[in-house]
Amino acid sequence: MQFYCESLTGYRRLRTREVRIGDLLLGNGHPIRVQTMTTTDTMDTMATVEQTIRCIEAGAELVRITAPSKKEAENLQAIRDELRKRGYNTPLIADIHFTPNAAEIAARIVEKVRVNPGNYVDKKKFEQIEYTDAEYAEEIERIRERFTPLVRICKEHGTAMRIGTNHGSLSDRIMSRYGDTANGMVESAMEFLRIARDENFHNIVLSMKSSNPQVMVQAYRLLVKTMFEEFGECYPLHLGVTEAGDGEDGRIKSAIGIGTLLEDGIGDTIRVSLTEDPELEIPVCRDLVKRYMAPASTQLPAYTTLPYSPFEYQRRKSFAVDIIGAKQVPVVIADLSKIEKITSAHLQSVGYHYDAGTDKWTIGDAAADFIFTGHQLLDFALPGTLKVITYPDAWEGADSTTYFPLFAASGFVQATHRHAKLNFVMVDCYNDETPINDYTHLDHLANDPTVVLCLSSTNQNAMQSIRRMVAELMLRDIKNPVVLMTDSQGHTPDEHLIHFATETGALFLDGFGDGICLGYAANASMENVQVKGRTYLPVKDIYQFTNNTAFSILQATRTRISKTEYISCPSCGRTLFDLQETTARIRAVTNHLKGVKIAIMGCIVNGPGEMADADFGYVGSGPGKITLYKNKEIVKRNVDSEVAVDELINLLKENGAWIDKA
Ligand code: SF4
User: Would the CB of 570 count as within 6 Å of ligand 1?
Assistant: First the structure.
């Protein structure tokens, strides 16, 4: 193993134990399984059966159903019987929180049970408790007593189990000792895993979910390392980002978290949690997984040492070149080079709106910092904050306060005329210009105070290639800022989103980017980004789609905040209102509140625990009733749902988080 995976320089699946879930085998190199979860009331047998069938028909290989109490757990029998009667043998999973009794019933009926170690035995009161080692050991014994019966039932019935830790619902005990950390998440699962192993029970899958992809990725990496160190082996991993939300943001967040791990061969089954119908999650899962069906890796130089920590975020140190690098937020470069004749109207797509009446530009929160125009100079006046990048032939003679050249690495070395302040230099990582272990060009550029490196790779393992190059920069103490450049060859919006989010998101999560530039293969067209029957934000054209995606990636990796953040649960049988409709309603009135995090959660049983670091929470607390939170504190209880959105706005106003829409 290399640090936390089989290889950081070539695609290889992590070796895990084989787990049987009904007739389905998981782990040990079996294909990455895709799964989802129903949103119907578990007591409504026919609705749950019908929805499960829709998920199976869409391609789900496992379907999870909530069992909040004994009666729902018992009703899993009727659901399972009906599905089997109709010829569907897909394994079912019971989702358990707080109720060991329900788990013990479900484990006798369905193929797998999921327990949350944060609330299986412990009840969360958000208390800080000081334990002595002896008291802590006593707590573990209390868990052993309550958890062992379930382990024995699973063993007897051949039922698999997922020990599913959620960042938002760590127990007070874990929080008190380990804090709100990746380490706390790992220990939370390990406590349960050790008990299961003591019973010689190994039919186990683990997960480390969080709504923050950074925390989630670090926790999975740490879990793999911890399991190998303690047991010399690893159990299969279920990957997911919780409460990812809907539309493009939900897909991007999920793809960054799940995709970052899949890139390193980690993950045996995935679920993309979207606040949408569960069958819509499956195509996204499949798009994520298909990237690894026939992986070919270009050989990269081996790591002798890792110059960054994969378990802890720290931005790579760079110096500032103009507005790029050092502590400045990553810049966004919009690639408009494929437009034959760029006009002021095209700038609307990248955040600049020109009003001819007032002769003024309005600049949005998600306005690109640079545009790349290829060989074109523009024949209209630009907004003052926007700068232009062109190839050197076009740049010669252009206004050097607005225009900056983009050189090939060899071109820059040979150039007689360079910009005095800012030059962009392409570095194609481990391809023609920088073959393995030949860093001649890099050495010529190293630490030139005018140079921003634009890293790209056409290798199949492009993320690994760029990551290896960034590591090389760090090892050589080269501190030029780095722009991450990625082209998509996708054909659909999801393929583009997943490609961009995985390739660049993984690098931003490790602190590697000072800028982002997303582009397309030459044949990409507007049709590629038109959205049918989805809750994506509407986009005007491919350039707006790309620009939005770049800002969404920065938002999801928490490197540049440009909009409101929504943490909404995917809903399940516990949900007390129409989550999709409500999320859309709340989004419509709050989507101008840059940086505010709003959680929209279906139930008060799990919602408050799961809404992680939201600033405000809108949580279903009974039929037609909503409870509003400020951070983890209840501020308005059981508000009528008819007026709850207005009350949420009042709450935002009372707390200085509201501004009127422009
Ligand atoms: S928070 Fe949402 S998904 Fe989680 S249990 Fe409650 S309703 Fe279900």
Answer: yes
Atom 6 of ligand 1, nearest CA residue: 603
Residue 65: CB within 6 Å of ligand 1?
no
Q: What angle do CA 317, 417, 375 make, to 5 degrees?
A: 85
In the 3-class helix/strand/coil scheme, how is 438-493 assigned residue by residue? CCHHHHHHCCCCCEEEEEECCCCCHHHHHHHHHHHHHHCCCCCCEEEEEEECCCCH
Asked if 334 and 547 count as a contact pair (C-beta separation under 8 A), the reply is: yes
Indicate which residue's Cα is closest to atom 1 of ligand 1: 607
Span from the CA of 577 to the centroid of ligand 1 (angstroms)? 11
pLDDT digits (tens, 9 = 90+) for 68-83: 999 999 999 999 999 9
Which helix (H) or strand (E) covers residue 19, if one does?
A: strand 19-21
Dump pLDDT digits (tens) for 138-185: 999 999 999 999 999 999 999 999 999 998 888 888 988 998 899 999
Please state the pTM of the whole predicted model: 0.92
Distance from the CA of 130 to the center of ligand 1, in angstroms?
30
pLDDT tens per residue, range 194-210: 999 999 999 999 999 99
CA 635-641-642 angle, to 5 degrees, is 120
Nearest CA, atom 8, ligand 1? 572
Closest CA to 106 of 120, 96, 119, 91: 96
68 CA: nearest ligand 1 atom:
5
